[in-house]
Structures are given as structure tokens and as C-alpha cells.
Amino acid sequence: MKIRRSIMGIAGISLLSVALLAAKPAEESDRIKTGDKTLFRGHTFSWTPESRDTDIVEDPVTGEMVNVIMVGLPRIDAMDDDKVYRNNDETLQPAGFGGKDADAFYAYVAAQFSARFGQLPDDLHNIYIDNLVIDERGKVRYYEIKCNTGQNTYDISQGDSPYQRYAAAIRGIIDASPGWQPAALRRRLVKSGLEGFYVFNRSTTR
Fold first, then answer.
1. Which is the most buried residue in 37, 64, 84, 175, by most CB within 10 A?
2. Within a 13 Å sphere around the CA of 48, how many CA atoms are in the beta-carbon half?
3. CA nearest 169: which of 156, 155, 152?
4. Rg from Cα positions in the chain
5. How far apart are CA 86 and CA 191, in angstroms?
């Protein structure tokens, strides 16, 4: 049984590799997803599964203790089969930007974006960048651009969207941005991933 499972596992990996190679992105910004893998600009990114857990918290209205389901969204944990560490991992010297921390990158992108777009549609509540991956050479290798209208959240990284021009502008800002100082684990440079951040948030601009 062990040998059979191993063979099936190898066959599954081979089929996945063929599927990812065959699904060539039509444009440089396209992300091709197959199962828990995403192909982007020649690199394969692996995702953790969605996780669910329960916790007991106090209801702020009634004061009663209630069960709450905590959902952990998928996140990138490997690039080309090489581990992607969380940038806030306590064992890491985190990746930085411009001699400062990651917040300096967020401020850089937001400033560049606001200089190009002074007025945004009223139905657009926010635009944010998610699942940012920095490799061991300080290059941004993956990111997603999303927006929220109050009723729906859209991934505007690719495909048709009325907000596509904003995504294109952010993509250009990120791709032309200076390099990062990569994360280090015991003096070894490693890949790291960061959580999402707002490029534009209407609630903070009023």
C-alpha cells in the first residue's frame, strides 16, 4: 500500500506540473490557479488550505459567553517548493523597504497612487494589496490587488473589472518600485510573505 500511494503521489505531482505548464498566462499579469497552486510570471506558488477553529468569547451586548467560528484564509507558504516565511515570524529578521520596515513600502505605493488619482468613484470603499511575497533577493514575486465596494469584494489583479485601470496603475507602481531588504533566518536570506494593506481606504480619507 505504501508503494502504491507513493506512485500515485508522484503521478499526481506530474499531472499537476503538466497542467500548470500547459496553462500559460495570456498576459504578464495573469494568475493561473490549479488546485492549491498558482502560476504567476514563471513561478509556482503553493497555498495553505482554509482552516476553521472555534473559540469562546464574551458577547459585548449580552455579556454571555458564545462559541465563535474562526476562519483562517489560505495563504502562500511556498514558492517553487521553497518555503515562504511569514514576515512577522518571531524567528526572522523581517524584510524591509528603503532601510525601514514594511510600512515604508505601503506608504510608497499609497503616495504614488494618490498622486495619480485624486478622485475615485463614490462606490469604491477601498483598494488593497494582498498576499505579497518577497524573495531572498528582495524582489516582489507575487501580489494580488483587490477592492471593496461595500457590497462585494473583487480581485482586480486580472480579468474584466470597472476598476481595472486602478489595478494597472498599482501593478506599474509595484513593478517599478525599488528592491526590498530580504528577510533573514539565522543570517540566511529567505522568502517572506506579508498580509494585505490598504492603498486607498475611504473611511480614512473623510
1. 84
2. 16
3. 156
4. 20
5. 9
